[in-house]
């Protein structure tokens, strides 16, 4: 029985592993962060399109919505017109109403339509 008293009781420690580098996962905190993120109802109503709040977000494919609920659309001639009014349920922009925005500087962007006109 004296041999059992010499054994150290505790966690198994392996060579090369440092217990201070291992971090515990805080699942509770992760769930709290996910719960705090609110669902953007406006984004869901517009088919996944969201309103930009900062100038640096205007890159890639964009659509311009007017205050009446319609979008600006491109024509084959290179001109732009205001599209038809839509209901709230079908308020996603059509392909002719999407443009490609390329930042030129901190205050300027270039807009390219789907018809190859700028």
Would you write up a description of this structure?
The protein has helices at residues 2-5, 27-36, 41-45; strands at 60-62, 72-74, 80-82, 99-103, 109-112. The chain is an alpha+beta fold and 118 residues long. The protein has a domain at 40-118: Trefoil (Trefoil (Acidic Fibroblast Growth Factor, subunit A)).
What are the SSEs and their pairings?
Layout: H1 2-5, H2 27-36, H3 41-45, E1 60-62, E2 72-74, E3 80-82, E4 99-103, E5 109-112
Antiparallel strand pairs: 1-4, 2-3, 4-5
Q: What portion of residues belong to β-strands?
A: 15-25%
Low-confidence stretches: none
Biggest pleated-sheet summary: 3 strands, antiparallel
Helix content percent band? 10-25%
Number of helices: 3
- State the end-to-end distance: 89 Å
Based on Cα principal axes, name the global outline. elongated
Class derived from helix and strand content: alpha+beta
CATH class call of one domain:
Mainly Beta
Counting DSSP E segments of at least 2 residues, the number of strands comes to: 5
Going across the major beta sheet, what is the strand order? Answer: 1-4-5
Average the pLDDT over all residues and give the rounded result: 77
* CATH fold node name of one domain: Trefoil (Acidic Fibroblast Growth Factor, subunit A)
- CATH-scheme architecture of one domain: Trefoil
- Secondary-structure element series: HHHEEEEE
């Amino acid at each position: 029985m004296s041999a059992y008293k010499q054994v150290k009781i505790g966690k198994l420690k392996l060579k090369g592993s440092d217990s201070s580098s291992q971090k515990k996962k805080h699942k509770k905190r992760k769930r709290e962060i996910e719960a705090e993120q609110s669902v953007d109802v406006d984004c869901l109503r517009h088919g996944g399109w969201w309103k930009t709040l900062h100038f640096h977000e205007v890159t890639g494919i964009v659509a311009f919505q007017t205050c009446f609920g319609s979008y600006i659309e491109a024509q084959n001639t290179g001109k732009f017109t205001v599209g038809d009014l839509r209901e709230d349920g079908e308020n996603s922009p059509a392909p002719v109403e999407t443009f490609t925005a390329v930042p030129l500087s901190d205050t300027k962007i270039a807009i390219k339509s789907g018809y190859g006109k700028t």
